[in-house]
Write a structure and sequence with these properties.
- The protein contains five helices and six strands, in the order E-E-H-H-E-E-H-E-E-H-H.
- It is of the alpha+beta class.
- The protein folds into two domains: 1-38; 41-181, no CATH class.
Length: 182
Amino acid sequence: MARTYVHKGGDTSGIGIDGAELNREISRVLNELSQYAKSIDARDLGVLQRNAMALTRDAMRAEITDSKETIKVYRNGGLYAEIEPGTLKRSIGIGRSKTNGPARLFSAYWVGPRVKNAFKDPEKGGWFAHFINYGNIKSGNYSGSNRGFADRAKSRTMPLVLAKFTANAKVYLEKEFNKVVQ
């Protein structure tokens, strides 16, 4: 693939790459890699993602200080919900996002309050978490210890999550590659 050459003036020499030969070599490598890609499953990579994101979930839960009293939420002039102490901490979890593509190829996870069906029962779930994180409770004057809990946890754990996922993915890919090669 690589060829030596001497410049026409004779003053420069080096190693050049033949474009047609390079394209053939890249095509060959991609064809070889395509057979390995079939053994790599997004579900397995999703498990690795979820395990790595547990660091952020645990950090978010640790950042939350439970309120001593029940928080009353009013809407449309009436009492909408009474949020018991500990609800926010219990609602923090890891969820799976819906993806536009074959489930075999894509996986996406998130960390935060689980709010599924929260509006059927407003006293359940962490639907109010963003109000607390950004300080929008009590007419925007909330400055309690929980303000910014999600941002602090994310900034503290994101490098750790990436490092853990990368290390686990390398081990997984090596194992899958060795299975296919043998």
